[in-house]
Amino acid sequence: MRNKKWMTKVMAAGMVLALAMTGCGSKETEGTKQDTTTTTKAPTKAPTKAPTEAPVTEDEAKEPTQTAEAKKLKQFADIAEGETYAKINIKDYGTITVKFFEEEAPKAVENFVTHAKEGYYDGLTFHRIFDDFMIQGGDPEGNGTGGESIWGEEFEDEFDEDLHPYRGALCMANAGANTNGSQFFIVQADVNYVADLEKMLKDQYNVGLQQYVELAYGTVLTEEQTKNYGLYGGTPWLFERHTVFGQVMDGYNVLDAVAGVTVNSSGVPETPVVIDSIEVIEN
Questions:
Q1: How far apart are CA 44 and CA 274, in angstroms?
Q2: For residues 90 and 160, what is the distance between their CA atoms, to the nearest angstrom?
Q3: CATH class of 29-39+64-282
């Protein structure tokens, strides 16, 4: 079953690349105004083979927010005194702790924090989940069609070149540019996913991750940025398509557990994954 899933998505990757290389298409549909969602995921990883290289070191095996090198980046730096953070408590799974980027994405942070303090998200579900991609929630309708901002209208995207949809990034879901409301998602794709994806692209289509993202999605990344996705995981094709306004600091095991639930072909969980509460904390 797993191999069949991989094969289907590898074929989809080939179609995207073929269109991109012939100039007939470049980006996948992001959804409609009625369906606030993340961009369709990139092709999945190729079947994993037995490791032939040196074992991963203890530091390399850690999550990005736990390594000294990663902490040099703004996105993975420890929560500083005076900064706001939140605990997303998920029924039956545990807690995911996130910090916010208040200076870089002030409206997105204000919107999420205010909703959280007012209990807007309490009892809502993660209605769309894809393992090796992301978990999405924040819709009172529970199907991707509902929700609104604290201002009662959509608000604009807030992009920063130093904030990326790396593993653990807290992002705004949308139905296109500047259509942010209440829905959000957390990137779950890890370094193994990115490594296998790049290997598959090179083996099957003779392109690297950086070239693929530009050809298929129109997203231009520097070599350093592309390298960081390899180091920290993530979804590079979503860079500057969805506002990154926070980062998971703790609870990656909970994130992975939620991402691993049984879902249908549309990513709807077989058993609802419920947000008990979101506790906002002033450090």
A1: 27
A2: 29
A3: mainly beta
CB neighbourhood size of 57 (10 A): 8
- CA distances to 3, 41, 153, 209, 230 from 223, in Å: 31, 22, 37, 10, 11
Whole-model pTM: value is: 0.84
The single residue listed with the structure tokens 């942070």 is 109
The 3-state secondary structure of the chain reads CHHHHHHHHHHHHHHHHHHHHCCCCCCCCCCECCECECCCCCCCCCCCCCCCCCCCCCCCCCCHHHCCCHHHCHHHCCCCCCCEEEEEEECCCEEEEEEECCCCCHHHHHHHHHHHHCCCCCCCEEEEEECCCEEEECCCCCCCCCCCCCCCCCECCCCCCCCCCECCEEEECECCCCCECCCEEEECCCHHHHHHHHHHHHHHHCCCHHHHHHHHHCCCCCHHHHHHHHHHCECHHHCCCCCEEEEEEECHHHHHHHHCCCECCCCCECCCCEEEEEEEEEC
Residue with tokens 């605990």, as numbered in its chain: 87
Give the pLDDT confidence of 17-75 residue by residue, as tens digits: 443 333 333 333 333 334 676 655 565 443 333 333 334 344 445 798 888 899 999 99
